[in-house]
UniProtKB/TrEMBL annotation:
This is Uncharacterized protein. It holds the Pfam family Kelch_1. PANTHER family: KELCH REPEAT SUPERFAMILY PROTEIN, OS02G0202900 PROTEIN. The keyword Zinc does not apply.
Amino acid sequence: EAKKEAVRQKAAGALTANSRLGTLRRVFAGWRDMPKEVELSGAVGIYVFGGFGGPRTPSQVERLNVAGRTWELLPRMPRERCTAAAACVGSWIYVLGGICGREHLDSVDRFNPGTGRWEPVREMGERRGYLAATAGENAVFAVGGFNGAGRLSSTERLDPATGGWTRLPLMNTRRQCAAAAWLSGRLYVAGGDDGRGSLDSVELYNPHAERWDVLPSMRQKRSGAAALAVRGCLYVIGGSDGEPVNTGEQFDPEGQTWTGLPEMKVPRDGLGAALVSDSIFVLGGHDGVLRQRSVERMSAQAARWEEFVAPTVSRNFAAVTVGPC
């Protein structure tokens, strides 16, 4: 009987492993087959702005040339920014808010990678540290954050053509350290911290209906995570549920379901993430002991994380986005 039970448990374990492997294969098969949300023409790079690190890190800018597998230093930001957010529209990269010393910022600067020039943009309607940002429909969205007195449920949209900010309806939940992404004409916001702890809640803004809808909660609470739109699905990676995590999950808008992703090699709270071609990159963050300098990449073909060339400094809560080289 003991031998039969051992055989049964071994078979059950194999079925569970095969089921998980099958799920991951279906996830990444869908990733390869579905159309991309955003296409940038020409060479692209991953840009990293400021963040916590060394004494010179808060104003430092680095760019990863993915094809060349090289990092380079770029002109520094006009002012130091930690916990800022970044988004790219056209040939400009916008860096929003953050904190400088004890000051929570409402200022915005934009950077032109082609000329290496920085210039100021009209201030946001609120001061926002630990905010999230993303780009969609040729606009930049600033989401939630902390203004020095409390967490924010407010969101605003920048029209780069006019330079004007428009206030949007309030989210259902106050959030700092949330993750945001633009997917299929909708703004998704996941997780964050409402002042009582990390959140697993997710909501979606429909710009045509001008309202926020609550979506199924994530499998895990996450504050300081990163979000990406990947082939028609929302990916939320890393963050903290009280301790930094190395997990990620994928939301399918059609099925309204969450599916787990392969685990990163190290936990990352306050990480950055970017999608280039068929690969997801994660970088920086805090593992609970040290700030991370490492970079990991997961491709659709491999469906696992592998180490990639690292930048010059360790940092967390930097502003990260993809832009033209």
